[in-house]
Amino acid sequence: MPLPPPSPTSTAVVTGASSGIGADFARELAARGHGVTLVARRSERLQELAAELGTAVRAEAIACDIADPDARAALFDRIAERGLTVDILVNNAGIGTIGLVTRVPPVDEVAQVRVNVEAIVDLTTRAVQQMVPRGRGAILNVGSTAGFYPFPGQTAYAATKAFVHTYSEGLRAELAGTSVTVAMVAPGPVRTEFLRAAGMDEKKFAAAFPKFLWMPSREVARIGVDAIEHDRGNVIAGRRNWVATRFAQMLPRAFLLKTLREQHPALRRDRSAR
Ligand SMILES: NC(=O)c1ccc[n+]([C@@H]2O[C@H](COP(=O)([O-])OP(=O)(O)OC[C@H]3O[C@@H](n4cnc5c(N)ncnc54)[C@H](OP(=O)(O)O)[C@@H]3O)[C@@H](O)[C@H]2O)c1
C-alpha cells in the first residue's frame, strides 16, 4: 500500500506549499482526493491556496517556520488538535545559497542546512514514529539533480541535496515491510521563486541551463506523487534530466568540476566582481 488512500481523518502535509513545486504538490494530491495541510511561513499565500483547493477537498493552512525546532515540534500537535493523522508527508520546502562560499553570508549557509537537512530529519522521524505503528504512511522528499555530484557555485546546497538522496534511500530500506514507503524526487531546473529567494538573476541563470532540461512544476509534482503511488523509491524528474545526470556522473570528475566551475553563472558574476 505505497500511497495510503484518502480518508476524512488523515492528511497529506506539504512543506513549502506557499509557492512553486510545493503548491503544485498540494494541487496534485488534492486532485487525487487527499485532504492537504499546507505548511510554510507566508500565511496569506497558504490561505489563498487552501481556499482554491478547499472547493474539492479538506485543506488547511498552518504557518510554521520549519527552521525552528520548537515550531517543528508543535506542528504535529497542531495537526492532531484538528483530529487529523499524518498519512503523507511531502518534505518539499527548500532554500539555497548561490555563489562563491567566500562571498556567501555564513548565516545563510547554515540556514539552508536547517531547512534542507535538519527539518527533513526531524519531521520525517516524527512522522514515521506515528506511521509505522499505524501500519500506513508515505514520505516524499525533494532532492535535486544538483545533489548527484559536487556543484561549485551551489556547493553547500548540492551537499544538502546529496544528504536528502542518501537519507531517503536508507530510510526506504529500513522501513521495507512496514507498510510505510519512502520516495525521493530530484527535479532539474524549474521556474519558481527559488532563484529570486537566493538573490540570483533569473535570466542569467536560465540562459546557463539548456532549455530542454526545464520542467513545469506541476509535472515535477505529478512525477513525485507517482513515485510514492507506484513505490519507485528515488527518481529523477523527467527522462532528459535522467540522461543529463547519468551522463554527468560518467564524466571524469575533475573535468566535470572544472566545467561546472567555469560555466556556473553565479561564479562568473562573483569572479568579475572581485
Ligand atoms: N526550482 C528549481 O529549479 C529546483 C530544482 C531542484 C530542486 N528544487 C527543490 O524543490 C523544492 C521547492 O523549491 P521551489 O523551486 O518550489 O522554490 P520556491 O518557489 O522558492 O519554494 C520554496 C518553498 O519553501 C518554503 N520555505 C523556505 N524556507 C522555509 C522555512 N524556514 N519554513 C517553512 N517553509 C519554508 C517557502 O515558503 P515561505 O517562504 O512562505 O516560508 C516556499 O514555499 C526545494 O526543496 C528545492 O530545493 C528546486
From TrEMBL:
One term under GO cellular component: membrane
Presence of the UniProt keyword Oxidoreductase in the record: yes
One Pfam entry name: adh_short
Entry keyword annotation includes Membrane: no
PROSITE patterns membership: ADH_SHORT (PS00061)
Residue ranges of domain Ketoreductase in the record: 10-193
Keywords for this protein: Oxidoreductase
Family matches, as PANTHER family: DEHYDROGENASE/REDUCTASE SDR FAMILY MEMBER 7B, SHORT-CHAIN DEHYDROGENASE-RELATED
Similarity comment: family membership: Belongs to the short-chain dehydrogenases/reductases (SDR) family.
Identification of the protein by name: Oxidoreductase
